[in-house]
Amino acid sequence: FGRLVGLWRVEVEIARRSGGWQKSEPGIWAWKYTLDGFAVSDLWLQASDALPIYMKDLGRDYLLSSNRVFDISSKKWRVAWMANGAGAGQGADFGTFTAALEDEAIVMRSPKEPGGYGSQRVVFDAFTDTSFEWRSEYSTDDGTTWQTVMRMSATRIED
Q: What pTM, to 2 d.p., does this model score?
């Protein structure tokens, strides 16, 4: 995750249930080293007047923060995130992932929640010095097929 340290402008698209994609206003994503360089933290900010349609009733800026630390024993990253009350259902404002490098992508996987939507993975890929792609995917068949529900394109603002 160190390659993401810096400040990014992020274009967001959300899958419509009826098909196609709904563009949202851009967000800002700030990444930094923490814990004396042993972890990476980030903060997502989307201004209240730029929220996607499904979050318009939030009434404030949307903030989401994550902390990532590498677990030497499992050789995976442990990720914990929390948001500022935007979620409507269980697990919508806090969650955990494990992450690993798969081919050239960073793939984060969440534990399957009892009674949840299925399995979730988040993929970071298409890295350059000034950009990367991100997508959130769900599977209801234990990972045989994945459906992309959100995708983002990030452009570096500063290191």
A: 0.88
